[in-house]
Design brief:
single chain, alpha/beta, Metallo-beta-lactamase, Chain A, 2 domains, five-stranded mixed beta sheet, 10 helices, about 20% strand, binds zinc ion
Length: about 325
């Protein structure tokens, strides 16, 4: 198979998404699409044209997970005749997000209950609304499960469901030839993927993510091609770095927790990420990741949560740990 990286613009600080064109014995397919913006669509069409292709030449589109930068142009490509495949769990989530207009509001409210003040949440609520505004509704033509074998452009892949970044995130493992991995946001070269505890998502996303990293590690895979950043020739080494990063973050969070004085999530998040330098979207991700780490520490018996007199949840370190 021939693999071509098409780098598409994103209107975020993380300023690009890689879509991958797969050329095989049965034509062409695309892995991830870019966001539903005019600059992304134009760049995709131009990138295809440079390879002598048009959108109607794409037989299939595989979407790795439910974030809008990965599937935004899927409805456009369906209109051009492509079949869209997506992991079932994230497809269910996206349908729930489409059909419940108050989904974002309830997600934001779940942080309000944790004592995050209005002015901080307002920026995140605006960022979520902005994402919804560039998210056209769509229904996949086919959903896929973990371990399922799929053929894209006549090339055989195994679907590896790798929860953590989202509950149903999936990677594509090439079964023959170079055994490349199209890894979406599961493993990224320069940044670590956001692992958030959020409404309707996993109870222990960090635990799930660690297990999903272990699943991909040690499979003897070739180059891994991520949705953001360049290719990774040492996938296992990068996975070890990400695992070490989360161990360090857990220790940093423990150091912010006190045994006697329980602290609210905002102070802990600020201590970990420095909220002043973050925009609304990044603040949202930082709060979610702090919550994911707190949950992992709770499950390990190293932290606990309790409500104060005003009903705000506060976190403290457990002594014996
Ligand atoms: Zn993502």
């Amino acid at each position: 198979m021939d693999l071509h990286r098409l780098t598409l613009p994103l209107p975020l600080r993380l300023n690009h998404l890689n879509a991958y064109l797969i050329r095989g014995p049965a034509g062409c397919a695309l892995c991830d699409t870019g966001m539903a913006t005019e600059p992304a669509r134009e760049t995709l069409v131009a990138g295809l044209a440079a390879l002598g292709l048009a959108p109607r030449d794409l037989r299939q589109v595989f979407v790795t997970h439910f974030h809008g930068d990965h599937w935004g142009l899927a409805p456009f490509l369906q209109g051009e005749g492509a079949r869209v495949l997506m992991p079932r769990i994230d497809h269910e989530l996206i349908q729930a997000w489409f059909t419940h207009p108050d989904y974002d509001r309830r997600a934001v409210e779940s942080f309000r209950e944790l004592g995050v003040p209005e002015e901080v949440l307002a920026g995140s609520a605006r960022a979520l609304a902005g994402m919804r505004a560039v998210s056209p509704r769509f229904v996949a033509d086919q959903t896929v499960e973990d371990d399922e074998l799929v053929e894209l452009a006549g090339v055989r892949f195994r679907v590896l469901v790798t929860p953590g970044h989202t509950p149903g995130h999936a990677c594509l493992e090439e079964l023959e030839g170079e055994r490349r991995l199209l890894c979406g946001d599961h493993v990224l070269p320069q940044i670590t993927p956001n692992i958030s505890r959020d409404l309707g998502l996993l109870d222990d996303p960090l635990g799930a993510y660690r297990a999903a990293l272990a699943r991909v590690r040690g499979r003897g895979l070739g180059t891994a091609w991520p949705a953001h950043g360049g290719p990774m020739t040492n996938l296992d080494g990068r996975i070890d770095e990400i695992l070490a990063h989360h161990r360090e973050r857990a220790e940093a969070l423990l150091a912010l927790l006190d045994e006697r004085e329980p602290r609210p999530i905002l102070a802990l998040c600020d201590g970990l990420f420095g909220l002043r330098k973050l925009d609304g979207w990044e603040t949202w991700m930082a709060l979610g990741e702090t919550r994911a780490h707190l949950r992992a520490l709770e499950l390990e018996g190293r932290a606990s949560a309790q409500r104060d007199a005003s009903g705000t949840l506060r976190f403290r370190r457990e002594t014996s740990a």
